[in-house]
């Protein structure tokens, strides 16, 4: 009799991958029916929609990040630190590159892990489309490290301007954000608030209304081009109230250390450029002998299985999945997509492991709408009716509460209701004794 446990390896500990590992650990792992292993190149997890707040300094990541090792211990799965860089489909093994310390020394050697089922959920990175100078002179907001890098650069620029003898030069404190999707517009509003709070702490040489400028560049003719026009118009009005410069219908052709140039010949001077336009899946996916599309997404069936190998699944931003069985349109790269697919894969894995049933459920995307948060200024949303198919526009306090609940729902999936309730109480108490912006 073969008592070998089913080996489920999940590569990528983003919102979807971590939620799936937690759910499978609490069921299959806890009951000793399968061994669940989560692989990620980072030691901690932060919810990606919070990155713009970390970049602006409104959120201290140290207090909101989750330690993978602790989560694995509490929820009956294994965590392995490393970056997957190779796949052997015939032997059912993945390979992790050596983990290197900042000083160049090798901390963890190359390792190989066997799997019965492999699930890839490595998310996406920004796509700079090969624009000249973008990779060297613009900062992306793909991960916590990049968000913190931008915050340090912004904070240092403000400190330098405060203490320098010369006048603040044109572009010295101008932030240019390329891409006016949700990340871009949310970052613009958050920066407006955070920079004013930052300068209020004794940085009296700087007049934020005069010296600190925020600009958004978007190739489309309106903000939030992938979302309903009413949301776009509402956000447009709010950002103009904040004196955010909007350059719509402008396509970036060059980014230098002096600023950004667009296809119309416009030059916007800036030493602080954020790239928030376009996505692609990580480059290493092209080298795994799995079929990928032009932006490196693994092509999967509606069961989320790779079209090359039924034992390999992919979901979230790194997968090209039909929006419903038989459709030619693909699932949009959104957080709600990854959450829905994680729930489906939780059922799928239980069916495979407990029942040895390969008649797997198929995924159909359900659009519940979108919410865009402009910090304390406004929140707007478009909610889709699951029964009628109609949509409803919401804004203000109601939309803000719904936006905040999205994060709490993510935390509940990881920790449960009781833990999240205590976290909220603790945050409410400590918030009264802390600065509302990170000052270092």
Can you describe what's shown?
By secondary structure, the protein is of the alpha/beta class. The chain folds into 3 domains: 6-124 and 281-355, FAD/NAD(P)-binding domain; 134-277, FAD/NAD(P)-binding domain; 369-431, no CATH class. Helices cover 33% and strands 23% of the residues. It is built from 12 helices and 27 strands. The strands form 9 sheets. The protein has a 5-stranded parallel beta sheet with strand order 5-2-1-11-23. Strand 25 and strand 26 (379-384) form a beta hairpin. Helix 1 packs parallel to helix 10 and helix 11 packs across helix 12 (417-431).
CATH superfamily of the largest domain: FAD/NAD(P)-binding domain
CATH topology-level fold name of the largest domain:
FAD/NAD(P)-binding domain
Please identify the top-level CATH class of the largest domain.
Alpha Beta
Question: What is the topology, as strand order, of the major beta sheet?
Answer: 5-2-1-11-23
Question: Can you give me a brief rundown of this structure?
Answer:
By secondary structure, the protein is of the alpha/beta class.
What is the element layout, followed by pairings?
Elements: E1 6-11, H1 15-29, E2 34-40, E3 44-45, H2 51-56, H3 61-64, E4 66-67, H4 68-74, E5 78-81, E6 84-88, E7 93-96, E8 99-100, E9 106-108, E10 111-114, E11 117-120, E12 125-126, H5 134-137, E13 139-140, H6 144-163, E14 174-178, H7 182-199, H8 208-211, E15 213-218, H9 229-241, E16 245-248, E17 252-255, E18 259-262, E19 267-269, E20 272-275, E21 279-280, E22 298-299, E23 312-314, E24 319-320, H10 335-355, E25 369-373, E26 379-384, E27 391-395, H11 397-415, H12 417-431
Parallel strand pairs: 1-2, 1-11, 2-5, 11-23, 13-20, 14-15, 14-20, 15-16, 22-24
Antiparallel strand pairs: 3-4, 6-7, 7-10, 8-9, 12-21, 17-18, 18-19, 25-26, 26-27
């Amino acid at each position: 009799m073969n008592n070998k446990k089913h080996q489920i390896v999940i590569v990528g500990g983003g919102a979807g991958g971590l939620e799936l590992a937690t759910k499978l650990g609490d069921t299959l792992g806890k009951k000793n029916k399968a061994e669940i292993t989560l692989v990620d190149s980072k030691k901690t997890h932060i919810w990606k929609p919070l990155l713009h707040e970390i970049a602006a300094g409104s959120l201290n990541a140290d207090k909101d990040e989750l330690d993978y090792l602790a989560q694995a211990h509490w929820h009956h799965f294994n965590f392995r630190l490393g970056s997957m860089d190779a796949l052997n489909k015939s032997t059912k093994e993945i390979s992790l590159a050596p983990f290197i310390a900042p000083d160049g020394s090798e901390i963890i050697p190359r390792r190989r892990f066997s799997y019965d089922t492999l699930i890839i959920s490595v998310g996406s990175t920004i796509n700079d489309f090969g624009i000249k100078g973008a990779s060297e002179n613009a900062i992306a907001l793909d991960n916590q490290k990049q968000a913190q890098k931008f915050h340090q650069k912004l904070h240092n620029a403000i400190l330098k301007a405060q203490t320098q003898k010369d006048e603040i030069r044109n572009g010295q404190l101008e932030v240019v954000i390329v891409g006016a999707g949700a990340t871009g517009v949310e970052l613009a509003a958050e920066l407006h608030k955070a920079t004013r709070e930052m300068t209020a702490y004794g940085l009296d040489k700087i007049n934020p209304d005069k010296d600190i400028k925020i600009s958004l560049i978007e190739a489309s003719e309106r903000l939030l081009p992938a979302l309903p026009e009413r949301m776009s118009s509402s956000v447009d009005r709010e950002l103009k109230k904040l004196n955010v410069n909007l350059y719509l219908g402008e396509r970036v052709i060059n980014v230098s250390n002096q600023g950004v140039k667009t296809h119309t010949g416009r030059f916007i001077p800036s030493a602080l450029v954020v790239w928030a336009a376009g996505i692609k899946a990580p480059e290493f996916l092209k080298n795994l002998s799995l079929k990928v599309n032009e932006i490196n997404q693994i092509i999967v069936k509606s069961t989320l299985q790779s079209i090359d190998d039924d034992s390999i699944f992919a979901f979230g931003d790194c997968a090209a999945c039909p929006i419903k069985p038989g459709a030619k349109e693909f699932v949009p790269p959104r957080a709600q997509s990854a959450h829905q697919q994680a729930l489906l894969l939780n059922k799928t894995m239980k069916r495979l492991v407990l029942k040895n049933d390969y008649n797997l459920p198929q995924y159909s995307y359900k659009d519940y709408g979108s919410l865009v948060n402009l910090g304390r200024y406004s929140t707007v949303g478009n909610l889709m009716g699951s029964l009628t198919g109609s949509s409803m526009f919401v804004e203000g306090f109601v939309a803000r509460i719904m936006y905040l609940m999205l994060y709490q729902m993510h935390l509940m999936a990881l920790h449960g209701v009781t833990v999240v309730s205590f976290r909220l109480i603790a945050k409410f108490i400590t918030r009264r004794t802390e600065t509302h912006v990170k000052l270092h």
